[in-house]
Write a structure and sequence with these properties.
Length: 281
């Protein structure tokens, strides 16, 4: 079989990989929701070598990209990521141009492109934040796989009108919808405004990930993490729904809300532990 035929078969196999299909589906959902305008948003998905090798040639990297930050903790690990400057709406029709399958080098100082990122494309500009967050989440959750960043509309709006205190912000979200405490009992964390794409925002986001699965970047968007694409998307979806309800209420008088006792009863019923310092019983 000629090299060209092998490469063509490999490309077709790559497109059929379940993890590529997941990325196509989730990016399309997020774009349709209006969360990822233009080239906004990025995703990284930690993969097992065995599942990658079923569809992609892991013995022949296409090229190597030097990292501006070392990630020795992730040496040898495989990821599929969105590309820098790529539009989520285009992933479904041309995944090879908008996604990339990477392997972190043995030294952790570069990544090898195994598939995708065609025509010289590079991984998301938020790769530092993603990799640093993966490192911290894996320390507390060995099943962790996903880091998802999106410009969730109502969460961004809420950061303009609500006090940016983590405990108060979490409490308000919990009060907006009964399921919220059950879905994110660990609450949400909030950074100060920082220039995106920098190592500094990566470090601060990762520091929050030690205790949270959700990090909000004021006036910018939200980072969510989880063990599967469904649970991670669902986590962000729930936070966004609560923020939407808060925004709908606006400045109108609130005549009743979910009480602290009711929130506590929810926690007991669903066997979750609410973030400390929020409920006053």
């Amino acid at each position: 079989m000629s090299t060209n035929v092998i490469e063509t078969v490999g490309y077709i196999a790559g497109v059929e990989a379940p993890f590529i299909k997941e990325m196509k589906e989730i990016t399309h959902h997020m774009w349709k929701l209006g969360w990822d305008e233009l080239n906004g948003g990025n995703i990284s998905y930690l993969l097992d070598e065995e599942e990658v090798a079923k569809y992609i040639n892991v013995l022949k990297p296409l090229r190597t990209i030097k990292l501006t930050f070392p990630v020795a903790e992730l040496a040898g690990k495989y990821f599929i990521v969105t590309g820098s400057g790529k539009y989520f709406r285009n992933v479904v029709k041309d995944p090879e141009a908008n996604l990339g399958v990477l392997r972190v080098s043995a030294s952790g100082e570069s990544v090898e492109v195994l598939w995708g990122l065609s025509n010289g494309a590079v991984p998301t500009s938020e790769l530092a934040s993603h990799f640093m967050s993966h490192i911290e989440r894996l320390k507390v959750d060995p099943t962790h796989r996903i880091v998802l960043h999106t410009h969730a509309t109502n969460v961004i709006a809420m950061t303009f009108t609500h006090e940016l205190d983590e405990l108060k912000f979490t409490k308000t979200l919990w009060e907006m919808c009964t399921e919220c405490l059950v879905v994110f009992p660990d609450g949400v964390s909030i950074l100060p405004w920082i220039v995106p794409g920098s190592s500094e925002i990566g470090r601060q986001t990762a520091a929050k990930m030690k205790d949270h699965r959700v990090v909000i970047w004021p006036h910018h968007g939200i980072f969510g993490t989880g063990s599967t694409m469904d649970t991670t998307f669902g986590l962000i979806e729930t936070v966004e729904k609560a923020a939407a309800i808060y925004n709908l209420i606006g400045g109108r008088e609130i005549k009743q809300t979910i009480t602290d006792q009711q929130l506590y009863d929810l926690a007991v019923a669903f066997k979750v532990t609410p973030k400390a310092g929020i409920l006053k019983l």
